[in-house]
Amino acid sequence: MLVDSFRFLPRSFVPLYQSPAPLPGEEEPVWAPFPARLAEASVALITSAGLHVEGKQEPFDAEGERRQPTWGDPTHRVIPAELGERRLGMTHLHVNPTDALADNNVVLPSAVLAELVADGRVGAAGPDHVSVMGYQQAGLEVWRNETAPAIVELLRRQGTDGVVLAPV
Amino acid sequence: MPVLARRIEAAGIPTVTVTMMPDVADALLTPRVVGVEFPFGHPFGMPADRHTQRRVLATALDVLAGASRPGTRVDVDIEWPQPRGEAYKAWQPAEPSPIVAMMLNRAGRPGGDGAA
Question: In chain A, which among 129-168 make CB contacts under 8 A with chain B?
Fold first, then answer.
């Protein structure tokens, strides 16, 4: 099956996405070889769903985006793989959050990853995952210069061997 | 997201990106891409559909660990369980996003349904 990238996109948006060119300064491939057997590797997840830990972290800034529609909050939240009793909130003005809030695994499959660890297919998870908020235009430079380095530092500190990213 | 994946990869940590728009991720030189033909907001499937969630994540992990060159793309062969029209309406926010509202206003269409 070849996935139709535009099946669920409003038709008037299709031309905006049909022939994207690499961004300036991003014209060369990048590659890091996977360093381990999956069964011995530590994996972290990154979602762009705009998740935060309720009662513990500030939600992403939706009001700022309403004031300045070309801007999206470029910060990130560290989401523990083990949430315990805590719940995740979601801030995202571009998708309906109902299903992701009903089951966080729709966007951040941390319980699924934990199952794969328990089954021995993956060495370890987290212990932290990460959420950013999708839709970045005016905030993209902050993503490049601040958010990405901070996430890399977290991943290195916790010994992450590989990352699964999922835009929403 | 391709920007973030590329930054992490360039720092020496391999990445795989699960996306509803694999053509776009590929064109933006995302190192490893797993495509899903799912409505936006649902990269791993429907709520409580653990079978699909697990299959998508397991595919992503296999690509993460097994791909040998940049530009690797694998599409997951799962058809979305809802009719297209229903899923198309369901994924969209109740109100148009600020950028869509701005575009609609510029086009002389105040308000709108978010579908542009």
Answer: 132, 134-137, 140, 143-144, 147-149, 151-152, 155-156, 160-168
Mean confidence (pLDDT) of chain A: 94
More confident residue, A10 or B48: B48
Average pLDDT score over chain B? 92
* CB-CB neighbours of A27 under 10 Å: 9
pLDDT digits over B8-55, tens only?
999 999 999 999 999 999 999 999 999 999 999 999 999 999 999 999
Which of A29, A109, A151 minimises the CB distance to B44? Answer: A109
Q: Give the domain range for residue A60.
A: 49-166
Task: Report yes or no on A21 lying in a domain.
Answer: no
Dihedral through CA A84, CA A104, CA B61, CA A156, nearest 10? -50
Domains held by chain A: number: 1
Answer yes or no: is A158 within a domain.
yes
Closest C-alpha to A129, from A151, A103, A98? A151
In contact, A105 and B49? CB cutoff 8 Å: no
Report field, pTM of the whole predicted structure over 0.90: yes
Phi and psi at A152, nearest 5°, equal: -60, -40
A22 part of a folded domain: no
| Structure ipTM | 0.96
